[in-house]
Amino acid sequence: MAPRYAPSLRSRLAPLLLCLQTSFIVLFCFFTEIQKNNFTAWFFSSLPGFQDVNVMLFLGFGFFFTFPVRYGFSATAFTLLVAVVATQWGIILNGLEPHRGKIKISLKSLVEAELCTASAMISIAAVQGKTNPVQLVLISLLEVSGFILNKWVLQSLLKVSLLNSIMLLHIFGSFFGLLLTWVFYRKGCELQFEKEKYDQKSGLFSMLGTLFLWMYLPTFNSVLVDDRIPGRKLKAVCSTYLALAVSAVTAASMSSLCHPRGKVNMTQMQQCILAGGVAVGVSVSGVQHPWEAMTIGFTAAVIATIGHQYLQTQMLHGFQCHDTCATLSSFGLPGLLGWVAHLLLEIRDCDDQTTAIRFAVFHICSLLITIALSLSTGLITGLLLKLEVCRRPPDNKCFDDQVYWEVCHVQLYRCFVQFLETQLKIFFYFTVSSSRGKKVRT
């Protein structure tokens, strides 16, 4: 029976969140203002992208984490909590520039902050179910700080564009989370935690989150693409969709090949169908033709499936890294593949050898800096959160909603299923209504 009040919630979570939110209100009061220049044109062109990124961040990742049978409430609600806290922090850090005056808040700044938050969501996926809410909030704050520092270093020292520096979020988030899993390693997790299991219904909701991520990933990869160049944003959307389509087909076939009886593994497939979109997202500025995106998607799905089949077990037994959601296979390896593809594509399009060598050196340095900062900040974060003051949950309380939610165990799952069904009906109702309204107006 879980304690009436979990220590991390009653004496730690409430003071932490109240102090954080009060500090954010004060900072936004004195140092921010709404940007009003070019409001009409930029607002209506960027609002759909902003909404799609929101769907990915809250619905996509929220449902994606619901695969444990008894962790549905925590997966969806704590994802919302962590994301909104990290986004506010990202807006502040992204706007900190000397001699700039007040921080200008616009849809673009909100989108940039949410993309930085997506990197934190990838890191949290690696330790999902084994950490308490206090640790999740602190992880998101420290990870967003490290990622924005990495973005600033790449832009200021290596003159990397905003798009290319932010799209390294998959690599940064996966390696950051990998170090967290190494620091948070618990003896005996090779035999799996007591409640680290899933059934058909929880797996279905998790697959639903993956489908949200799959559908809105083209917008995610193209939302920061400069639309002043005709066709560039369309090229990014089409390339991402083609890579995602190819990776979905390839992941299903590879999963069947890896199974001894030729069956498709739902968990393996949902972890790998995003690989093509992740890889193309890192190399989106270098992809010029549809077949290039499709080749990248095919290779990414093969690598992700093989990594999920063999690498995850080897990382657990050989390096003591218990990666809950296989973030290294789902995001890290496809991100590295996208980085290699970007390097090769840009070198191919260079006019002379000197330019190609210069780009290769800067490109390699950007990857080394990203990996170094992600590993170092992940190590520092893990060591800080491993202190006794954070009180991580014991082994028998991991992957369990009853520790954090005032819902009896018998009613927990039924309430969660009813909640999800209601939210999905509302979401699809408004989606269909808006589409019909647009047809009537046209």
Record keyword descriptors for this entry.
442 residues, mainly alpha, Ammonium transporter fold, two-stranded parallel sheet, 73% helix, disordered N terminus, disordered C terminus
What proportion of the residues form beta strands (DSSP E)?
Answer: under 5%
Broad shape: globular
Main sheet attributes: strand count, strand direction, barrel closure: 2 strands, parallel
**CATH classification class:** Mainly Alpha
What CATH architecture label applies? Answer: Orthogonal Bundle
Q: What would you call the structural class?
A: mainly alpha
Q: For the largest beta sheet, what order do the strands appear in spatially?
A: 1-2
Q: What's the number of extended β-strand segments?
A: 2
Mean pLDDT: 83
Q: What would you give as the CATH superfamily?
A: Ammonium transporter AmtB like domains
In terms of quaternary structure, the protein is single chain
What is the count of helical runs?
Answer: 15
Secondary-structure element series:
HEHHEHHHHHHHHHHHH
GO biological process, one term: ammonium homeostasis
Function: Functions as an ammonia transporter. May play a role in the elimination of ammonia in the gill.
Main location: membrane
InterPro entries: Ammonium/urea_transptr, NH4_transpt_AmtB-like_dom, RhesusRHD
